[in-house]
Design goal:
Layout lengths: L7 E12 L3 E21 L4 E7 L13 H13 L4 E7 L10 H14 L8 H16 L7 H6 L2 E3 L5 E3 L5 E8 L5 H6 L7 H20 L2 H7 L6 H4 L6 H10 L4 E4 L6 E6 L1 H17 L4 E7 L6 E5 L8
Parallel strand pairs: 3-4
Antiparallel strand pairs: 1-2, 1-11, 2-4, 2-5, 5-6, 7-9, 7-10, 8-9
C-alpha cells in the first residue's frame, strides 16, 4: 500500500435467502434491501474490540471470539499478518433468527471493511474463509450458502469454491418474515433422523430441474424444481401458518415457495417485480389471517454483493 494508511472503513453486506427448495446447504442468493453495516477503525492494540451495536433490541456478545463479525475480523487480521488491531461498530439491519442470513451478513460486512484497512488487501477466497469462521458461531457449521451470496452477490452454489449461477433478469423473490425468532441450531435438530432413499432420489430430481430451469430460463422446470421433500416437511411445525402462507404464494402465481434458510422467513419465486410484490402481499396477508404480524419485500434473485460504503482518505486498494 502506498501513501498514508487508511484509519477507518465502512462496508455493508446484504441479507440472503438460502436452501431455495431442494438446495439445502448449497444454494443461496443475495437480497436487495435489508443489510448489515460495519464500521472498522484501525487501532494500535492488537486484536478486535466491538465498541457499539445498533439496530437490535437485544445485546450481542462484545467478545470478538463469541461474535460473528468480531471473529471473522480477527481471523482476517491473523491471515494477513496485520500489525494492528481494529474496533468494530455494528449496525444491524437484518433481524437475527429470521432465515435471511443475519449472522452471515455481519461476518461478511466485517471482513470487507477490515480488508480495506490492510496494507495488502486479501483475495475473495480468504475473505470467504474468514467470514465462514464467524458464521459457524451462529449456525454451528461452516456452510457458505448465506456467506457466499452475501459476499459475491447474485445466486451462488456454495461448493468449497463457490460458483455463481446466472439467474434470469425477470426472476424475482418475495420474502415474508413473521415476528418469530427461529435459531438455526434448533431448526437443524429436527433434521437428524435418517431419510428414506426414495426421498433422496426425489430431492435430487428437483435440484436437477431447478438448476436446468435457471440455466435455460425454463419456467416449467423452475416449477418442477422448487420443491423440497427432505427438509421442509420436518420444519413445517416450527413455523406457525406455514401451509397457508405457502399456498398464498402459489395462488398468487409463484413458481414455487418454501422456507428461506432455517426459517421462519418464507419465500416464493415469481416472474417479474410486480408479480413478486403482489405475491409478497398475499403471503403477508396469509400470515395476518393466522394472527401473525409479518414484514414483506420483493427482490431480484440476482441481488447485490457486499461492498465498501465509505472510507478515509488513505491511498491504496480496498476490497
Amino acid at each position: 500500500m502506498n501513501g498514508r494508511q487508511r484509519e477507518w472503513a465502512r462496508a455493508f453486506a446484504p441479507a440472503s435467502s438460502s436452501n431455495l427448495g431442494p438446495g439445502f446447504d448449497l444454494l443461496g442468493h443475495a437480497i436487495a434491501g435489508p443489510r448489515d453495516e460495519v464500521l472498522a477503525r484501525r487501532v494500535s492494540t492488537p486484536g478486535v474490540r466491538i465498541t457499539a451495536l445498533h439496530g437490535l433490541p437485544l445485546a450481542l456478545p462484545s467478545d470478538a471470539l463469541r461474535n460473528t463479525a468480531g471473529l471473522a475480523a480477527l481471523r482476517l487480521l491473523e491471515r494477513a499478518g496485520a500489525g494492528f488491531g481494529v474496533e468494530l461498530e455494528l449496525h444491524k439491519g437484518i433481524p437475527l433468527g429470521s432465515g435471511i442470513g443475519g449472522s452471515a451478513a455481519s461476518a461478511v460486512a466485517a471482513v470487507v471493511a477490515v480488508n480495506a484497512l490492510l496494507d495488502e488487501a486479501q483475495p475473495l477466497d480468504v475473505l470467504l474463509d474468514c467470514a465462514l469462521d464467524g458464521e459457524a458461531l451462529a449456525s454451528g457449521a461452516r456452510h457458505a450458502d448465506n456467506v457466499a451470496p452475501a459476499l459475491l452477490g447474485g445466486l451462488v452454489a456454495a461448493f468449497e469454491r463457490p460458483v455463481a449461477i446466472a439467474a434470469p433478469d425477470w426472476l424475482y423473490a418475495a420474502l415474508v418474515t413473521p415476528e418469530q425468532v427461529l435459531e438455526t441450531r434448533v431448526a437443524r435438530e429436527v433434521l437428524l433422523a435418517p431419510y428414506p432413499l426414495t426421498d433422496l432420489v426425489r430431492q435430487t430430481h428437483h435440484l436437477a430441474a431447478l438448476l436446468l430451469g435457471l440455466q435455460r430460463g425454463d419456467r416449467r422446470l423452475l416449477r418442477e424444481g422448487l420443491r423440497d421433500v427432505l427438509v421442509e416437511p420436518r420444519r413445517i411445525g416450527l413455523i406457525p401458518g406455514f401451509t397457508a402462507v405457502r399456498d398464498g404464494a402459489l395462488d398468487a402465481g409463484a413458481f414455487g415457495a418454501g422456507i428461506s434458510g432455517a426459517g421462519p422467513t418464507l419465500f416464493g419465486w415469481f416472474e417479474g417485480q410486480a408479480a413478486a410484490q403482489r405475491g409478497a402481499e398475499a403471503m403477508r396477508a396469509a400470515f395476518a389471517l393466522q394472527g401473525i404480524a409479518a414484514t414483506a419485500l420483493a427482490t431480484p434473485v440476482a441481488g447485490p454483493a457486499a461492498a465498501l460504503l465509505d472510507r478515509d482518505e488513505g491511498e491504496g486498494s480496498g476490497r
